[in-house]
Amino acid sequence: MASEGDRRADLEVGRRSRVLDSLRSGGDGRRSVAIALASTVVFFTAVGWVITHAPGWPEVHRTFFSWSQFKATFPEIAHAFLLNVKIFCIAEVIILVVALVLAVLRALPGPVFFPIRALVIVYADVFRGLPTILVIAMLGFGAPALDLKHVPTSTTFWGIVALVLIYSAYVSEVYRAGIESVHPSQEAAARSLGLSRWQTTRRVILPQAVRRVIPPLLNDFIGLQKDSALVATVGAVEAFNQSQIDTNATFNFTAYLSAAVLFVALTIPLARFTDWLVERDRRRRQAGRPG
Amino acid sequence: MTNAVVVEGLVKSFGKHTVLKGIDLEVGEHQVVALIGASGSGKSTLLRCINRLEPIDSGRILLAGDDITRPRNVNDVRRRIGIVFQSFNLFPHMSVLRNVTLAPRDVLGLSRSEADARANALLERFGLADKRDEYPDRLSGGQQQRVAIVRALAMQPELMLFDEVTSALDPELVAEVLQVIGELAAGGMTMIIATHEMSFARDIASRVCFLDGGTIIEEGPPEQIFTAPREPRTQQFLERIIEAKRL
């Protein structure tokens, strides 16, 4: 078990140094850095030249890369983007909890819990099988029509519900993979100390499982952040919808670029943050500090 | 005096394969029983059945007179029995101290300071005090196994089970682990030890049981088993061990 852990740590270190090496393009010191720099400049200059000398470039430049349009539409779209942020922030928190509960339910052993396991499996299969846009449309248009008392009718609310339903199915599978990756000997060790099944799950299995699935988990969240734009289809005025409104008003597509910049500005830091978390955890364990 | 452990007619199979075919074993208080035998003879399975990590098919197990064959709460049984595994099985996401204090706090309900004090005393006693804040993957195999022993001892068990605890260790690390077990024996701990370390078994055990094919073929005091085994299968096994220069 321990040697397995060691090996994993070694693998991580190995992978890491390979990545660094490829950044340094070989590791042959300054000469390779110079070559990497030169080839990069040559490559992008060539690509840039081809694009800007294409016959349609002046038109594309005007309709897609208009600086004045960008300045004009950006504040509005940024404001609408706050709705995207709200949608996925709320959805993410709920998904993290719901999916974890689903994964733990699915891991319940014994014949008594068969109905629960079966329900979770059916749920995961159905909601991973449905296109996100379809669920958003069905709930966004259908649910408010039910006229339920004490239940919000806003399309944003139902959009969030749809995203939670879809993504919880995915994320519960991610959690499940993590739970199953923890070696059975860990459970044996915990149970042999007298810990109950639940204590074992909470103290020993889940902490290790969650740590291992942070990268794929955050990956799903990057997907979720982008899919928040789908709530536009039921009428919520978020960044994509706003940029469409602007585009229709001005016949200039630069508004899409504004929305794109906003999405990327949020998803890239999330990816960096994920790497930082993984690295910090690795360093902490190797440095042997309590944490 | 009640025996610490009594096993009667224990049968255990995995699917069609019967691993234990009626084991009878008595371990008195403060006794050290060594289980020897080839891999697959059922030593580990016997230990795992005693602390109920494996469900048993038939037979009876008594712990200090209490029938633990079908306990109402299996966790109550397990906290009275410590087990140490071949592969250490420390919790990699916890520091040494947290590994040791987890069960005393969560299972016995000790306060943090009580559990820490108990853990620190044990770590001190086995020369691990300076490792208390380390994580398992920073320790050598021998250190990890000693921590695993301390983790089990922190529950103050009435019985300790050792499942080939030195088999996964580099040869130079075996001694430090055996020394810990020797110290426990000297302190009067009741223990059942499955081992391939024959000279260790000879030195430490009050009784040696030779298992083969899921039954105890022969048992007796170490001097008798190792110098004048009665059963041909025991003789064969020991001859092979001597050939391999392990005795």
How would the blueprint of this fold be written?
The complex is a heterodimer of chains A (291) and B (247).
Chain A: H1 2-23, H2 30-52, H3 57-64, H4 67-106, H5 114-129, H6 132-145, H7 155-181, H8 184-192, H9 197-227, H10 239-250, H11 254-287
Helix pairs in contact in A: 4-5, 4-7, 4-9, 4-10, 4-11, 5-7, 6-7, 7-9, 8-9, 9-11, 10-11
Chain B: E1 5-14, E2 17-27, E3 32-36, H1 43-50, E4 58-63, E5 66-67, H2 74-78, E6 81-84, H3 96-106, H4 112-125, H5 141-153, E7 159-163, H6 171-186, E8 191-194, H7 198-204, E9 207-212, E10 215-220, H8 222-227, H9 232-243
Parallel strand pairs in B: 3-8, 3-9, 6-7, 7-8
Antiparallel strand pairs in B: 1-2, 1-4, 4-5, 9-10
Helix pairs in contact in B: 3-4, 3-5, 5-6
Tell me the β content of chain A: under 5%
CATH superfamily of chain A: MetI-like
Give the CA-CA distance, first to last residue of chain A: 21 Å
Query: Taking Cα atoms only, what radius of gyration of chain B do you get, to the nearest Å?
Result: 18 Å
List key phrases describing it.
heterodimer, A: 291 residues, mainly alpha, MetI-like fold, 81% helix, disordered N terminus, B: 247 residues, alpha/beta, six-stranded mixed beta sheet, four-stranded antiparallel beta sheet, 10 strands
